[in-house]
Amino acid sequence: MNRDVIDTSLKAGIKNYIGGNCTVSLMLMGIGGLFRKDCVEWVSSMTYQAASGAGASYLNDLILQMQEIAKATKGKDNAVLELARKTQEIMQDKKFPVENTVVPLACNLIPWIDVPVEDGMSREEWKGFAETNKILGTKDIPVNCICVRVPVLRCHSQAILVKLKRGMSLKEVENIIAEGNEWVKVIPNTKEESIRNLTPLAVTGNLTVAVGRIRHANNDPSYVSLFTVGDQLLWGAAEPIRRILRIVLEYLDKQKS
């Protein structure tokens, strides 16, 4: 996504290369083609972030919580309202395992990630603007985020609204996104394709970044809404660092020769 920025930095003698925030990395992998073509005026992203994004202990809490709910609701003969009552009851029990999540995540969500910063944002939301512009080498592309933790084991999803610099047809938008990099996969905006191929389960453990539900917002061709999902344990963390290291080593080898 930002190979030109990396190459320029290497030539300038910069020696610090830090992996980006997982949510920002996945957003840029998903819609990077629109940024590269200078089509983006601003972006608003609503995130659905997996438990594993907060670390192994957080993920462990979620699994323990699901186990406790399963034990409390065991049996097929209970009426559905009774199952719901038992679920709520066990989640409110003081012994419910929330050592790391603080509040229940199973059968729930947590609309706050990381520590507070200015203007009512969390640090995770602040990173949306700060890291997007740092990665791209830009200064002023507005990026607004609301970051939410959801009871998913792996893979972050995002509902994104993009204000384009000019009106574009959906076909043009889809083509630019698809050409952004070799890992992006545009999913047709149908119910069947979306529920099968635009989910954490569909992309977990591989490098595919799925982008779908692409449509104009309020029939205005200068606004595009979409949904994207990718494995944050790969693109959000390990894979970018691995690729940067290979670029640095390749650069050093050329310098020696």
Walk me through what this model shows.
The protein is an alpha/beta fold. It has helices at 3-11, 22-36, 56-72, 80-91, 123-136, 170-178, 191-197, 200-203, 234-256; strands spanning 40-49, 143-149, 156-164, 184-186, 209-217, 220-230. It has two domains: 3-50 and 109-256, Dihydrodipicolinate Reductase, domain 2 (2-Layer Sandwich); 53-108. A six-stranded mixed β-sheet has the order 2-1-3-6-5-4. The protein is globular, with a radius of gyration of 21 Å.
SSE run: HHEHHHEEHEHHEEH
Helix content: 40-55%
Q: Could you give me the name of the CATH homologous superfamily of the largest domain?
A: Dihydrodipicolinate Reductase, domain 2
**So what's the CATH class of the largest domain?**
Alpha Beta
Order of neighbouring strands in the sheet with most strands: 2-1-3-6-5-4
The gross shape turns out to be: globular
- Tally of helical segments: 9
List the helices and strands and how they pair.
Elements: H1 3-11, H2 22-36, E1 40-49, H3 56-72, H4 80-91, H5 123-136, E2 143-149, E3 156-164, H6 170-178, E4 184-186, H7 191-197, H8 200-203, E5 209-217, E6 220-230, H9 234-256
Parallel strand pairs: 1-2, 4-5
Antiparallel strand pairs: 1-3, 3-6, 5-6
Helix pairs in contact: 2-5, 2-6, 2-9, 3-4
What is this entry, summarized?
The chain has 257 residues and is an alpha/beta fold.
Please tag this protein with its features.
9 helices, 2 domains, Dihydrodipicolinate Reductase, domain 2, alpha/beta, 257 residues, 6 strands
